[in-house]
Every structure is written in C-alpha cells, then in structure tokens.
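User: Predict the full complex structure for these chains.
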Amino acid sequence: MEAYKRVALARKKNRPTGQDFIDNLFTDFIEVHGDRSFGDDPAMITGLGMLIDMPVTIIAQERGKNTKTRIKRNFGSSHPEGYRKALRQMKLAEKFNRPIVCLIDTSGAFCGIGAEERGQGQAIAKNLMEMMSLKVPILSVVIGEGGSGGALALGVADEVWMLENAIYSVISPEGCASILWKDASKTKEAARCLKLTAQDLLELEVIDKIISENHRDFKNVYRELKIGLYKGFQKNQALDTDQLTQNRYQRFRKYGAIESLTE
Amino acid sequence: MLNKGLFKKPKNELEAQHRTKRKTDPAIPSELCRSCPSCKQLSFSSDLENNFHVCPKCGHHFRINARQRLNMIVDPDSFVEQHHDLCSTNRLEFPGYDEKLEQATLFSHENEGVIIGTAKIGDHQVALFVMEATFMMGSMGQVVGEKITLIFEYALKHGLPVIGYTVSGGARMQEGMLALMQMAKTSGAVKRHSDAGLFYLAVLTDPTTGGVTASFAMEGDIILAEPEALIAFAGPRVIEQTIRQRLPKGFQRAEFLLEKGFVDAIVPRSIQKETIKQLLTLHQIPQGGDQNGSL
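Assistant: Here is the predicted structure of the two-chain assembly.
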C-alpha cells in the first residue's frame, strides 16, 4: 500500500483513540490527573488498570472523538505538563514495581506560546533521559500517528510495536514537503521518502513488531495486543533490573553505531 | 591559469555551486568589513576577530564555526579530536541527500555537524563536543548522534566531565526515524554519564532548536546560553503558522529562557572560558595529569 494511504488511515476520524484502547485492553481502570507543578493535560491520559491479572500503569495520548472532545484534548497534542504528568506516573510505576504501557497517538508535541514558555523541549528531554533507566518493563505501541519528539517522549521502551496502519515519523509529510521542496503538493512523495510505515520501520529495526489490523473492526487488534503485552511483560519481568535497563540502552544504542556506519 | 579559470564553464552543477559557495565561506573571511545584522554598523573583520566575533558596538554575537569556538575555549594545542572520519551515508536513499552531504562537506570543511574530542580548559582535562552550524545547520543525523554518544561514553569510561556547545536546526529529516532515534540514544548516554556522578555543562548557542533542544541540550547539569541565542523546541515560524498570531519580541531568546527558568545563566563569549574554568574548579575537576586523551 502507498505510504500516504497509511498516513490517511492513521489519521482517519473514526479510528479508535487511546481511550478505546484503554477500555478494551484493561479492567478496573482508574484515571489519575495532574503533573503536580502546573496543571493537568487532557491530551495525555494516565492511570492504573489491570492487564488480565497484572496491575499496570497506562499512559495514553488521546486526540478526542468529536469536535467538542477534540478541542478539549487539544487534538492529541500535549503541552509540557502532559509529558511531566506521564513521567510522574512512570516514576510511581517504578516505585510500586508495575510495568508501563504507553499508547502513542499524536501528530506531535504542541507548538504554541505556552508550550514553549513552560519548556516543551526540556520536558521531552527529561522523559527520554528518565525512561532510559526506569527499573520496570516498558512497552510502547504506536496506535495511530507517531509524530516526532512528541511521540518519542513515550517511546523509549524495551520494545516498540506498531499497528499495521499506524505511522511513526521524524516530521509530518506535509512539514517535510514544505521545508525541503517548498511545495505542499509533494506530500505523498515525502510520505514515501520518510519511511514512516510500520513495514518500513520494521525493516529498519526501529520497531519490533507489527500488530495486524482490520481497520473496520479492532476486536482482533485488542485481543492480540492484550495477550502480547501480557507475555511481553512476563518475559521482561523475569530479567533483573540491570539487565533490563542495559537491554533498553542497547536497543537505542544500535541506531547509527559505528559498525553500521562503516559497513 | 587565471584566464583559463575565469572563462571555464563549470562541468557540472556541483562545480558551479562550489565556486559560488566559496565566496561566502565563513572560514575564510575575505571582506575587510562586516556589517552587524543587529545594529547594521560596519566593523573591521580584524576587530571582530579580536573581540570574539562580537560586535563592538552593540554586543551582537556573530555566528562562528566549531573550530573558532574551540580556539576560544580550550588551552592552546590541547585539543585531541576523536572520530573525525565518520561520515553520513544515505541509508534511506532520500532524494537529493547525497548531494546535500557533499555540498555541506565542501562548505563547512568538516565531515559532519559535530566535532568531538578531549582537551584542557584551564588545565582541567575535559571531554567536549562542539556542533557545527555550517554543516546542514548542525542537524542531527546518525553520525552526529553517534559522535555525541561516543564522547559521553568515553567521558564515562575515563571519569571526565563533558562540555558541550550546541547549535542545531533539530533532527535531520533526510535520515527519517533513524535521526529521531538519536534523541533517545544521546539521552541514554547523558543519563549514564550523569548517574556516575560526572559533570555535564551545556552551552546553548544561536540557534538551538528541535530534537537537539528536546534531548541533550536541555539535559545539562548546568545550562549556559549565549546572549540573544534562539533556543526553542518548535521554531518561531512553525509556531506562528500553528497559532496564527505574531510572537512577542524576544520570544524564545536566551533572556526569555532565563526568565522562565530553563537556563542557568547567560554568558557572553568574552567571559565564557573564565566561567567554564570556574565551574570546573567548583565541581572539583582535577587539574594537570595526562595530556594525551586520545583513544
């Protein structure tokens, strides 16, 4: 399938959002709010829930379902307080030895005056740094759009999975076309060149697994994810914490390591 | 020879570009005078050079390249460069990227957008990285990420502090997700260095934006900035397009970040070396010792 078609599917209006995944993957979900220093970011849902019989911490980006909720959720684009809220919950997960599930679906971290004033860059940087050494298993799943740094701030995990029609990109194809070629009509070409589909990223080893989807019915997706996450956590919980963080470091260390550059 | 060169038609596009580019080469300032982009006043190039490339009239900090920075900061002849030979490849086969890399190499006289190595500053042994704006605006691809990771790993192994000068347009989009992954990779290296109790000083220069701001630039134990440097996650143009309103004056400049609490101090070039020395002393970084810090 053409790359840009995947972009359109990933952004499709009626595609299930973070909240749908939470409802279908976990039981006893309790949402918790706030970053304890500025406010609560509705674009980022954090909470606790049961994955089959395993208590887990859930971090999910939420873009909203209709105009009203989309405005409330800021179309899934977090402010710095969203990333700080996520990190606060991850630290608590570490304290209480709970695995962490991150569900990524954002067109990017929000670009606005308030976001810059409150240190969007610093908030993301801090998440990248801290997630690298968290002593509990982390699994991240790109469920829709994985937009650059705003997605990566939840993506420093032991394994990163993608839904078949999700995308994950360093920049939006629109942004790439207008910056590089000063021509918004080249969006489709940009989408192809950026290698942002699940298949491309599996080949580049940026992700570890593709969850196949039938985009009209997500029942199979939920079932596969639920079992997959459970087994993934069991596998990683068996490791001692040094091994776990060492593996995570090496997972990201390999991109552009000298050996691959001088091949 | 001269006549021959003058009337020779360039054989290909690259040769033509190379010829025109040379005129604006920052490494060889051919003009006698330069006008300040801030106050528009003319200054002699030699005066600027003696004044750390800072406008003597208004204090504007001209953009300078990485080697010039190194000369201002480190003790004479103490810099030992590492991994100079690492070059980028076009792994995604992104259209036009090979040509861009070639041009950037000719234009900047560097192999990539960052220089790493060890040096002495006030006789303190340090590891350092200095980013190079003339190489594709210091954008971070796999090689930049790798070199920064390597210097943090080297510093960790040898118990050295890291001094890092940042200037960058962000992640290099021609390398796609492999460029984005460098943010996680470098952050991991900073974290390990930090967890070992070692000191990392970041100095942010104009402009530091995007994926570099959202990773190692903002992860320093102490973060200094040059006066009026643009420091941003999203650049001003992107924000204006998103929110469709004009941004206030001074927005995202170093002074603004100081006010909002995201940098520790603004340090003009003229006192940067002194400030770094002072910080190294206060962090009890030993003086003297082995001069040869190469691998």
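Chain A touches chain B through 50 residues (CB under 8 Å).
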